[in-house]
Amino acid sequence: MATLTAAVRARRRRRPAERPPGGLGRTPISYAVLTLLGLFAILPVLVLLFNSLKTSLEIGTNPLGLPTSADFSNFAEAWRRGNMARGFANTAFLVVGTILGTWLMAGTAAYSLARLNPPAKRWIENYLFVIISLPVQMFIVPLFFLWVKLGLIDTLIGLVIIYVALNTPFSVLLLRTFLVGIPKELDEAARLDGANEWQIATRVIMPLSWPGFLTVGLVAGLGAYSELLFAVTFLIDVEKMPVATAFLQFSTGYSQLYNLVNAAGVIIVIPLIVLFLFMQRRFIAGLAASGTKG
Questions:
Q1: Domain limits of the chain?
Q2: Fewer CB atoms inside 10 A, N or C side of the chain?
Q3: What's the pLDDT score for residue 65?
Q4: What sections of the protein cross the membrane (predicted)?
Q5: CA 48/CA 20 separation, integer angstroms
Q6: Do 199 and 131 contact (CB within 8 A), yes or no?
Q7: What pairs with residue 49 in β-bridges?
Q8: Does 15 score more than 90 pLDDT?
């Protein structure tokens, strides 16, 4: 322990001096670029908010400006016509099921790759890298026929299974980076105390890797919350549609109720903004930690 402490102190002494304030990273150009990027990100949200308070006629004449008079009835009408209460309930089921399923599948697979060294480990990791590089659209047609034969079409459970399968490859690789960074001496100490592999995984390793599980849960949950393609393909009953499909309820022939579309968009985006404001530090820290461990 003394040797390890001395080595850490020596490494800290060898670190290069930090860049003083006002260096290359704090120039007017960098602030200007950051300001432009911030405006680029916030302006579409502001336009969405402004248009949600306008009538359809005003959106046609003034699509980018401030509303002349705020029409808050758009939100109530969008909530009612889009059946968004039922949509949020279905979305909650999909999000919770996807997060739990991804945690189970990705957690066990990542633990095996990081701590147990299974045969063909390198081949499995390469296979996962190939899978996450493939477009998900190529799986829709064979999955649809398979789901029809299995009786999973038009069921929320069937959609949860698809979401878990889509999120698992990336989640395995992400969680593995956290598990690899945990010293294996903890495993050996637990085995000396008589713990079996399940106890080591659940009581020693998993509690130490909770930032990775939190990051995986956020990625999988946000993906399930906003997913639309598989939802409209594998669900038929309107009562089973998630909230992301609420926009489809505002189509009348060849026209769109744009004021209600924008109001529904604001309602759907609000939970994401609130979640990001509360979890942004943990989320960014989890992604950063995953990139510094091997």
A1: 22-71, 80-290
A2: N
A3: 84
A4: 29-50, 92-114, 126-150, 156-175, 213-236, 256-278
A5: 41
A6: no
A7: none
A8: no
pLDDT 10s digits, 173-188: 989 888 888 888 888 8
> Quick count: other Cβ atoms within 10 Å of Cβ 179?
21
The string of pLDDT tens digits covering residues 243-283 is 988 877 776 555 678 888 889 889 998 888 888 777 766 66
pLDDT tens sequence across 53-89 = 998 888 888 888 888 888 888 899 889 888 899 999 9
Across the chain, mean pLDDT equals 83
Q: Measured in whole angstroms, how far is the alpha carbon of residue 36 from the centre of its chain?
A: 25
- Whether pTM exceeds 0.90: no
Please name the residues in contact with 57: beta carbons below 8 A apart, sequence gap of 6 or more.
none
**Residue 132 CB neighbours (<10 A):** 15
**Phi and psi at residue 11, to the nearest 5°:** -65, -40
Q: Are 135 and 229 in contact (CB under 8 A)?
A: no
- Residue identified by tokens 């279905």 is 90
Q: CA 53 → CA 58, 220, 266, distances in Å?
A: 10, 32, 10
Residue type, 235: L
Strand duo 251-252 + 255-256: pairing? antiparallel
- Residue 245 and residue 263 in contact, taking contact as beta carbons nearer than 8 Å: no
Structure tokens at 53: 């308070």
Say if residue 174 is exposed, middle or buried (CB neighbours under 10 Å; 0-12, 13-18, 19+). buried
Query: Contacts for 71-77 with beta carbons within 8 Å, 24 or more apart?
Result: 71/259, 74/259, 74/260, 74/262, 74/263, 75/263, 75/266, 75/267, 77/260, 77/263
Residues counted in the chain: 294
CATH number of 80-290: 1.10.3720.10
